[in-house]
Write a structure and sequence with these properties.
There is one protein chain. By secondary structure, the chain is an alpha+beta fold. It contains 3 helices and 11 strands, in the order E-E-E-E-E-E-E-H-E-E-E-H-H-E. Strands 7-4-9-8-11 form a 5-stranded mixed beta sheet, with helices on both faces. The chain has a 3-stranded antiparallel beta sheet with strand order 1-2-3, with no helix packed on it. A hairpin with a 5-residue loop joins strand 2 and strand 3. The longest helix has 15 residues. The mean pLDDT is 92.
């Protein structure tokens, strides 16, 4: 039997830490970390509350996507609904349901976990849980009032196969979209969607309350 391939928790000793920058939602931390040979090196990284993303799949096999301007990369990117875990200990499913409503004015009947990722583990502790949402319908009530970049959103429903082709062709770059569509494609080609983890599956990277 082959050895299970899985990430494992480990924490090397930190002799000192500081926070040279704190922004509205994230900050930068500097840790002095002891290496295996006993040397001590500085490691700077972004401190992030974590995020959720939603791959919403309709009855025709299309994915709800939106196009948003992202200033750091100077591009408008096709993405799936996503947002920050603004409240410490926030239930990620509740956050995902909120983002689906706010960004797509939609709700879903069935929720599963597609993937848990670290977006850039060499320079940030951001953890993202990507959900699969099915049984899509228009949300109740008025649309959420958007502002800033979100006031310029474009919305579309795109067949999954078309998104997979776009990822492999280097035309789509948003990490949550890339991970979501490839994970969904793999699940459909493998054991099926019912084999995905439940929406309340444990998430050690961002523990949450029920």
């Amino acid at each position: 039997m082959s050895k299970e391939i899985a990430d494992s928790p480990q924490e090397w000793r930190v002799t000192a830490t500081s926070t040279p920058f704190t922004g509205k939602k994230t900050g930068v931390r500097t840790d002095e970390v002891v290496m295996p040979d006993g040397s001590v090196v500085s490691r700077d990284y972004q401190v992030h509350p974590g995020s959720v993303a939603v791959l919403a799949l309709d009855e025709d096999g299309r994915v709800l996507v939106l196009k948003q301007y992202r200033h750091p990369v100077r591009q408008k990117l096709w993405e799936i609904p996503a947002g920050l875990l603004d409240v410490p200990g926030e239930n990620p499913l509740h956050a995902a349901q909120r983002e689906l409503y706010e960004e797509a004015h939609a709700k879903a009947e069935d929720w599963r976990v597609l993937a848990d990722i670290y977006t850039s583990p060499g320079g940030s502790d951001e953890a993202v849980r990507v959900f699969l949402a099915r049984g899509i319908a228009e949300a109740d009530g008025e649309r959420f009032a958007v502002e800033d970049e979100e006031a310029d959103l474009e919305h579309a429903r795109v067949p999954l196969a078309e998104l997979v082709r776009g990822v492999l062709a280097g035309q789509l770059h948003n990490s949550c979209l890339v991970v979501g569509v490839l994970a969904l494609s793999a699940a459909l080609a493998g054991e099926g969607l019912d084999a995905l983890r439940p929406a309340d599956a444990p998430w050690p990277a961002r523990p949450f309350t029920a």
